[in-house]
Amino acid sequence: MAIVCQSIRPNLLLVNELLLTDEERDRAGARLVALLDSYERGLPEAEILPAPDRDALSSLLATPMPEHGVGVDGLFDAWESTILPNSTTVAHPRFLAYVLGPPNGIAPYAEAMAAAMNQNCNFWQLSPAASVVERSVLEWLASVVGFPSGARGILTGGGSLATLQALATALHDRVPDFHATGLQRDAAPLVVYTSVEAHRSVDKAAAVLGIGLDNVRHIATDPLHRMDVHALRAAVEEDRAAGLRPWYVVGTCGTVSTGSVDPLDEIADLCAAEDLWLHVDGAYGALFLLSEEMRGLMGGCARADSITLDPHKLLHAPLEAGCLLVRDGAKLRDAFAFDSSYLTVAEDPLMTDYMDYGLQLSRNFKAFKVWSALQAFGVSAFRDANARTLALARRLGDGIEATPGLTLLAPVTLTAVCFAVDGASDDEHRALLERLIAENVALLGPVVVAGRRGIRACVTNHRTSEADIGLVLHRLRQAVSRRPRRAAVAGEGPGGGTAATPEHNPV
Ligand SMILES: Cc1ncc(COP(=O)(O)O)c(C=O)c1O
Questions:
Q1: Where in this protein does the record say N6-(pyridoxal phosphate)lysine is found (predicted)?
Q2: What domain range includes position 74?
Q3: Of 161, 348, 471, 487, which one is least surrounded by beta carbons within 10 A?
């Protein structure tokens, strides 16, 4: 029988100070259910980017941790009074900044259950169901990409970590004795190629793994912001001629600024001919492959040696859920499996020890929230949500193109819509962004496309509707209609022009 002791929480008998009593559990459940319900219902009217209450947040720092707990109601009160009002409403239907997929409806419940089970997804005895669930999610993701059955992968904390672990896998594959000697050997530098539009996580991975940014080539892009394969070929030839070692190319399926998709098939041809490892950064775009019609644009993902995906973007999993898939799964395991004889591991063909497929030993059950949402809603719901965001982005792009005084800065390939107000300076673009958020119209973000500054909307939000896009367009049109005509002519060139001064051109 459990030892019963008196809690400092009044009038309640506890078996353990760190557990809730039956009454407290009822109370916590009721308050959580009520809070989740009011949060969801309140989203359309919520402030997208509430101004932080600095006093309230400072008091979080100034107030010592309580020696005696505030209890369930005290905690929920603090959530409601201090945490929620000072949190960005990323699930608001007009949160249209960055590439962030607001969470799906089952996510909070799956997260709560995952915390209760607290499986350690390092080796399978600590997480048998989780091991198989992660495997089923990874096998499904591999089938979406078009990878062969020998592919293996791992869920990660995000796209950046997936890209880092891909580079480590390729280093281990291509550099003899890499685990033993690392890059500390007398050999010509290895060279990584990516485009000027690539995400900074590629540079970060190359820098921290010792490749050195001097050995990362940022290849120019074509007018559609896609990697120029002729320039890539020329760079590889030039480096070989100089005695360097070209070995790794990162193509992007959905660049972070404009959503452009590199010509992956042509890049794959070049990589095959030159014996280069092809990694695809598909953190933003590759999961649009859920729709067959995207295969023409991005089917080349299937030819990569490895690929980064981000279920916390287009699968609307709550943060964090990234993914690395490697075509030849043995290479991933070779790179990360270290002898851990102190861990009790018995081989089982059904199970996977994920500590052997990535950097982490202790790992949470990320696959649970991804799997649960796929089970609850079905794949078609995600396919439909993605198709809807693509259509809404096109509608926004068409509306901008049809509006005198607004210029699209790039074709709308996926869901990123980049535009500028003709003649507006950087400050005016910034002021427009601030105005849109102050009026709670929408959170959009800044962008620079081919040197020209502007504004970017990214419709990766499954809650966004036609009406939301209509409101954003309406407000943008109002803003440009107030501008004097000469300003619209002045700003055609790159950089947006500076003829329009803030005092007589409010946007
Ligand atoms: C193209 C691309 N790659 C990588 C990343 C980084 O992903 P994460 O934020 O999951 O690390 C992003 C994030 O937006 C991205 O758009």
A1: 313
A2: 5-89
A3: 348
Question: Is position 213 within any domain?
Answer: yes
CA distance 463 to 91: 7
Amino acid letter for position 313: K
Report pLDDT digits (tens) over 233-290: 999 999 999 999 999 999 999 999 999 999 999 999 999 999 999 999 999 999 999 9
Q: What is the CA radius of gyration of the chain?
A: 25
> What domain count does the chain have?
3
Q: For residue 6, give every residue at least 6 positions away whose Cβ sits within 8 Å of its Cβ, in sequence order, or none.
A: 13, 14
What CA–CA distance (Å, rounded) separates 309 from 332? 16
Predicted confidence band of residue 361 (pLDDT cuts 50, 70, 90): very high
Residue 468 DSSP SS3: helix
Q: End-to-end alpha-carbon separation of the chain, Å? A: 71
Decide if 142 is inside a domain. Answer: no
Cα separation, 437 vs 432, whole angstroms: 9
- Please return the burial class of 214, using the count of CB atoms within 10 Å of its CB with bins 0-12, 13-18 and 19+: exposed
Instruction: Identify the pLDDT of residue 168.
Output: 98
Which atom of ligand 1 lies nearest, measured to the CA of 256? Answer: 16
Cβ-based neighbour number of residue 411 at 10 Å: 14
Co-location of 167 and 305 in the same domain: yes
Do 280 and 177 fall into the same domain? yes
156 φ/ψ angles, rounded to the nearest 5 degrees: -125, 180
Ligand 1 atom with the smallest distance to the CA of 163 is 4
Which whole-number Å values give the CA distances from 78 to 57, 69, 81, in the listed order? 11, 12, 5
C-alpha span between 210 and 207 (Å, rounded): 5
Cβ–ligand 1 distance for 283 under 6 Å, the answer yes
Kindly state the tokens that stand for 347: 């081989």
Residue 71 domain flag: yes
- How many Å apart are CA 218 and CA 40, to the nearest integer? 43
Q: Are strands 306-309 and 277-281 parallel, antiparallel or unpaired?
A: parallel
CA of 33 to the centre of ligand 1 (A): 32
